[in-house]
Amino acid sequence: MVSEYEAVVVREAFKLYLQHQQASVVSRLLNETGRKTKRYEAQRGATRAARKWTTQDVLRLLRSSLYAGFVPYGDEMRPGEHPAIVDRATFHQVQDVLEGRGPGIQYHWRNPDYVLRGLLRCGMCGEAMTPGSTRKGTREYRYYRCVTRDTQGKEGCQASPLSAAALEDFVVARLREVSVGGGFATQVHARLTSRLEEKHKALRAERVRLPKDLARSAGESAKWVDSLSKLEGPSRRLLEQKRTAAEEESAGMKKRLAEVERALDAMEGEKLEAAWVAQALADFDAVWDALTAANRGRLLQALVGRVVVDEETDSVDVHLAHAGESATPLREEVAP
Ligand SMILES: [Zn+2]
């Protein structure tokens, strides 16, 4: 549990860090205002007394995702049950500064090595599979495990954790096969481009329509305001309700308009991304080995719709994202 005092100090530390961007400055300022570190209840009942802040203390505090309401889950962080002390936007902003990233670049929690994250389904229960790892000595073993099995045990699902490397190699081998010849790259690019064009068209139409709707709604509200002064009793209440509803609708439309503008701004980036995917795919065999883990993940997220792993039948079905409706999944028996 986090005490009220600790919560105040934590928020202060985050705020000061965003102002000064130096942990040493934050520790100095906290000490100057008489703030103390938390008393630690160490194992075996020993306690560490509250003391002055060091730079290391501040860095530890700023990096603690618990304060943003997350809990560790395997190799990732997930939203926890406990309330957040600092909002996530502030927390991510601080992580960006700590990591030396510029503004606007999204902070990723995630270990980029798990390139199939989010794409895997357990064929036995239909649930997602999630990354995890164990350590034996200096070696790390990565795997993907069924969420049902993970949360409910063997009674929930029988599927056992599967070697991440083996699954990843398998999916990549399938992609190497389909990318031979370059036809697939062309197909993917065509699909990505047409999907983006549709999206662009819909957004532009919305940008034209929303201001008109807003003007109409504002006009109606103004009329009601005029009538309100002449009304009494139930009819007045009814009209007030209508006006409130119209105002809420207007607020919703304004919010949507801002979203549309942002989405239109982001379209250039999405077009570049589509071009990058097509390019990488055109020379997949050579390009794959040269990509960073993060970019490998990015490419797989774009190309693979879903991978269903069925331990019972020893099979892995790779559904491609752009193979079209009629395509059959690339299915293969795998040795355990
Ligand atoms: Zn399962």
TrEMBL record:
Citing just one GO molecular function, the answer is: DNA strand exchange activity
- Name the Pfam families for this protein: Recombinase, Zn_ribbon_recom
Q: Which domain of life is it from?
A: Bacteria
User: Which InterPro entries does the protein's record reference?
Assistant: DNA_bind_recomb_sf (IPR038109), DNA_bind_recombinase_dom (IPR011109), SSR_resolvase (IPR050639), Zn_ribbon_recom_dom (IPR025827)
Name the keywords, alphabetized. Answer: Coiled coil
Coiled coil stretches, renumbered: 236-270
What protein does this entry describe?
Site-specific recombinase
Q: Which organism is it from?
A: Pseudomyxococcus hansupus
